[in-house]
Design goal:
This protein has a single domain, classed as 2-Layer Sandwich (Nucleotidyltransferase, domain 5), CATH 3.30.420.10. Helix 1 packs across helix 2. Helix content is about 50%, strand content about 15%. It is of the alpha/beta class. The protein has a five-stranded mixed sheet with strand order 3-2-1-4-5, sandwiched between helices. The chain has twelve helices and five strands.
Length: about 260
């Protein structure tokens, strides 16, 4: 079985803001501030933009297949949004993995749906629901209660919104590094400063924490025994050690 734990980082879709609110002539930074202000007016507090007003800045993944494990961010730092998204869905076409996320059903995948519409990206395997492949009738990516996309936050909360837990806190409670002081609210500022590499590193932290929680979830379900769990966790450690990248070394140092 192929497992793909993933996470996305997003920024305001300033092109959408410019179009919807008639903001021609303003800088991207100023348009984003208008979008945040309008959102605060709607919510009374939060400026977190609605899904269709988000743009993908990074997609990171942990892919476990056969005897290998890979941790990476899709594309290159200067890749277009369309290229990142196309690569993600091309991976689904190629490997038909079990997708693993933390709140992916509530955020990541809906954002990707809207951005696929924007860029005209085709993803037939992802949207399969049993019409052409009968196996997808009983287990597809689209059903909340199927396993082909396992949204860990949703499943562990018993599908009760009030019972959801933050990824960072849950990871730390299990002895994993968590976000190591980073926060998604910093991404827009980093993007404006040209720090796309830092955004990709942070996104990889989230994908790693998600995958490690998934291993514990599989242990809890009995799909891994204690020896198997330790073997899989050590594969992650070895992969990060062999890569010898600064942010991976920081992650390893914080891993209890």
């Amino acid at each position: 079985m192929n497992i793909l734990a993933f996470d996305i980082e997003t920024i305001p879709d300033v092109a959408a803001g410019r179009k919807l609110y008639g903001l021609d002539g303003l800088s991207d930074a100023d348009i984003a501030q208008v979008m945040f202000a309008k959102r605060r007016e709607q919510t009374g507090e939060s400026e977190f933009l609605r899904h269709h007003l988000q743009r993908v800045a990074a997609i990171s993944a942990v892919l476990r297949r056969e005897d290998s494990l890979t941790v990476w961010s899709l594309g290159e730092p200067d890749s277009s949004e369309a290229d990142l998204i196309r690569r993600f869905f091309d991976g689904i076409e190629k490997y038909t993995p079990t997708l693993v996320s933390w709140n992916g059903g509530g955020f990541d995948l809906p954002v990707l749906h809207y951005r696929c519409l924007t860029h005209g990206i085709s993803a037939p395997r992802y949207w399969e629901n049993g019409r052409d492949d009968q196996s997808f009738r009983w287990n597809n990516y689209l059903s909340r209660f199927h396993e082909r996309h396992t949204d860990l936050m949703d499943v562990l909360a018993g599908y009760q919104p009030r019972a959801g837990a933050p990824l960072d806190e849950m990871a730390q409670l299990l002895g994993f590094p968590g976000k190591l002081g980073r926060h998604g609210s910093e991404v827009w500022g980093q993007y404006l400063d040209g720090k796309i590499g830092e955004i990709r590193d942070y996104c990889e932290f989230d994908a790693l924490n998600t995958y490690l929680i998934y291993l514990r979830y599989e242990l809890m379900r009995g799909n891994l025994d204690e020896a198997g769990y330790k073997r899989e966790a050590e594969m992650v450690r070895k992969t990060l050690r062999d890569a010898n990248k600064p942010h991976f070394n920081e992650f390893l140092k914080a891993w209890k």
